[in-house]
Specification:
The complex is a heterodimer of chains A (257) and B (309).
Chain A: H1 2-28, H2 30-43, E1 45-58, E2 65-76, E3 79-88, E4 91-100, E5 106-109, E6 112-127, E7 131-146, E8 150-165, E9 171-187, E10 190-197, E11 211-221, E12 224-235, E13 243-256
Antiparallel strand pairs in A: 1-2, 1-13, 2-3, 3-4, 4-6, 5-6, 6-7, 7-8, 8-9, 9-10, 10-11, 11-12, 12-13
Chain B: H1 2-21, H2 36-39, E1 44-46, E2 62-68, H3 81-91, E3 101-106, H4 116-137, E4 144-146, H5 150-153, H6 158-164, E5 172-177, E6 184-189, H7 198-210, E7 216-219, H8 237-249, E8 252-257, E9 264-267, E10 272-275, H9 279-282, E11 284-291, E12 296-303
Parallel strand pairs in B: 1-5, 2-3, 3-4, 6-7, 7-8, 8-10
Antiparallel strand pairs in B: 2-11, 5-6, 9-10, 11-12
Helix pairs in contact in B: 3-4, 7-8
Chain lengths: 257, 309
């Protein structure tokens, strides 16, 4: 476990070192940067990295868990891909997300721009010494942006979960749904995002386990944003016996590479 | 702007009024007193000496236990309690008293909503069954052991469950052992009324199960997996996996659950999971046969309204 954390920390340091090195080079050679920017614009290629330090606080204060999460997002033309890695003392998460955002599914209308994306999430979780879970989500995102910097979008997915438990020679299969609705507002250097969802990048419970979340982001520089996220997670709101299971508090840094 | 704020407030107030008038008390959708972390302080151990005594299986190493789920007193659906009493009497008419059930289990949802009058109706129901058994056996050792379901928590029902319903806790365990035998079975009753055991209870269960060498039977209201639809089983899949891992490692032979009201059965290899058809909809009762010498458990389900002579 400690080894995994060590490797993970090393990867993080490597990523941030690369970023800082890139920044220094960028300011030193302005001409080169311009050339690179032009080239990026031609290819419509962009990259972004998020790092989160997460604290999971369960309803009982007898247990706490700390974890780290890393997300790398790259966009090329109408394809956006995200790779993620999450680790805590109980589990390891790997994430892959592909979003197809074709221009013909965008509709500017008045002050709004409506859009439809097609999304695929692949998530793997290894619960140390317990089980392996594979989550496959297929669906889409529908939303709109406004001239006043509002972004509203809803997501709906067919959700297949496959789980294998150590020592049990049987695959558990769950056919499920996943859905989310998010609201995001940007004003100046500030960003506020809130919403409700049945899943998150590293969190895939059953459908009726809503996560209420709120996030505040502040842009320090042109390409660096820091975020504070609070996710309040309930279990089973379908049978009205809902239970506040966990609150996740995350401090994050995002960098446009 | 002012007009808009007033509109929002009006919608909010009307919504809250609607929620609070619902008999299921939707106002408690985000929070209710007595969540699982406050209901479960420990796994209470019942023994022959405790006030709420563990069952007595006598000299029989092979014995029967009755199990029902989702009784739902207070529901508008017709109850067939008289027929159930007759069916229980019928079980005690067997000339071979080793075939008589030793105790009964109810897997939760004993009431439709958390009003005390419904809990008292359920209490009278269990007392009647215990009375039938006492008449046949000549003692008061036959008991009905109950755990909490999600309906029992609605509208703050836990306060009545805790006060009125034997064994006055929803997280407990006991051991059954035939006299003169060294083979015992452990029975674990866990509180899943919130759709989750919660981290604390799961930890307690894990510690207790790994330190207990006996074969086990695990009872809970929510099915753990059962291959049932996603909205009627434990919702946290990490928790689910951990429970199944514990069951696989610690000689659990059977898991019994209710909640879904339909029958489901899953064979995991070393152990099985049974979700019971409900008492209220199907007049279903399970007869568990425990063979402690061979460490095996089998279950037969009957519809008591049709099984009457």
């Amino acid at each position: 476990m400690n080894n995994i954390k060590l490797i993970f920390s090393s990867v993080l340091i490597l990523v941030f070192s690369t970023f800082l090195f890139a920044q220094e080079n960028a300011s030193a050679t302005e001409i080169e940067t311009e050339t690179t920017s032009e080239s990026a614009a031609e290819n419509k290629f962009s990259q972004h990295v998020d790092f989160y330090q997460a604290l999971f606080v369960p309803a009982t204060v007898t247990y706490e868990m700390v974890g780290e999460q890393l997300l790398y997002t790259a966009k090329w033309n109408f394809i956006e891909g995200t790779a993620g890695l999450g680790v805590s003392n109980e589990r390891l998460d790997l994430l892959g997300h592909v979003s197809l955002q074709p221009d013909f599914l965008r509709l500017p209308l008045g002050g709004y721009c409506f859009y439809l994306n097609l999304d695929e999430y692949l998530h793997y979780r290894y619960l140390f010494d317990v089980s392996s879970q594979f989550d496959i989500l297929t669906g889409g995102t529908i939303g709109f942006t406004t001239e006043t910097n509002w972004k509203v979008y809803a997501q709906c997915f067919y959700f297949l979960k496959l789980a294998g438990i150590n020592g049990i020679n049987k695959t558990l299969v769950d056919n499920d749904l996943a859905a989310a609705i998010h609201f995001e507002k940007t004003f100046g250097k500030n960003r506020i995002c809130y919403g409700i969802s049945s899943f998150d990048n590293f969190y895939y419970p059953k459908f009726f386990c809503p996560q209420f979340h709120i996030e505040y982001g502040y842009k320090f520089y042109e390409n660096i944003i820091t975020t504070l996220t609070v996710n309040v997670r309930y279990v089973d709101m379908f049978t009205l016996s809902s239970y506040l299971e966990e609150v996740e508090v995350k401090l994050g840094f995002g960098v446009d590479l | 702007m002012k007009k808009r704020i007033i509109s929002y407030l009006t919608v909010l107030i009307v919504s809250l009024t609607f929620f609070s008038s619902c008999k299921y008390n939707l106002a408690q959708v985000f929070y209710r007193p007595n969540e699982v972390w406050s209901r479960v302080k420990e796994i209470t151990v019942l023994t022959p000496e405790t006030t709420c005594a563990s069952p007595d299986v006598g000299d029989d190493s092979v014995y029967k236990v009755l199990v029902v789920s989702d009784v739902h007193f207070g529901s508008k659906i017709t109850h067939y309690d008289e027929k159930f009493y007759s069916w229980v009497e019928q079980q005690f008419e067997n000339a071979d008293d080793s075939q008589w059930p030793k105790f009964m289990i109810c897997l939760g949802d004993i009431v439709e909503v958390g009003e005390e009058k419904y809990f008292l109706e359920y209490k009278a129901f269990t007392e009647k069954i215990e009375e039938i058994a006492a008449t046949a056996r000549g003692d008061n050792k036959f008991k009905v052991y109950t755990i909490t379901g999600n309906h029992d928590l609605m509208d703050s029902g836990w306060q009545y469950f805790e006060k009125d319903i034997f064994p006055y806790t929803s997280c407990y365990k006991f051991t059954t052992q035939a006299k003169g035998s060294d083979k015992a079975f452990s029975w674990y009753f866990l509180d899943s009324g919130n759709g989750s055991l919660g981290r604390k209870q799961l930890k307690l269960f894990k510690e207790a199960a790994y330190s207990d060498p006996n074969p086990k039977i695990f009872c809970t209201h929510y099915p753990v997996y059962s291959d049932a639809p996603f909205y009627f089983i434990l919702q946290n899949t990490d928790e689910r996996d951990e429970i199944l891992k514990i069951c696989n490692d610690t000689k659990v032979k059977q898991i019994y659950g209710g909640h879904y009201h339909e029958y489901r059965h899953v064979d995991y290899g070393k152990f099985e999971e049974n979700s019971l058809e409900s008492y209220i909809d199907y007049q279903n009762v399970g007869i568990i046969t425990v063979d402690s010498e061979n460490e095996s458990v089998t279950t037969e389900f009957v519809q008591f309204t049709k099984d009457l002579h």
